[in-house]
Amino acid sequence: MNKPTDNMGLGEIMKRAQEMQKKLQDIQKQVADMEIVGQSGGGMVKIVMTGQHYAKKVTLDTNLFKEEKSVIEDLIAAAINDATDKIEKSLRGKMSGLAGGINMPDGFADSEK
Fold it and tell me: What is the per-residue DSSP string for 42-109?
């Protein structure tokens, strides 16, 4: 039976796992503290969202009220999606370096493959 890595003993694996756990906790705090602005309609709709996907503020340009209700609803949804995409990209960027030299099986760290 093969060991997880040929060059690491159990003590080293445990040490790296603890380091990864600490890094993960740091990333979770950073993400929780983030505030991201999602926009749509050329900035007519802005949503401030936390890294935990809670909307904190919605800003609508007054010119927007001249539009039909369905247009406004679509722009709000688009701004929410923009903020969500930005949060996810930021999280993926922070998580990409987490493995720190431990070789993970294909598909383990990146579920989009």
Answer: GGTEEEEEETTS-EEEEEE-GGGGGS-HHHHHHHHHHHHHHHHHHHHHHHHHHHTTTTTTPPPPTTTS
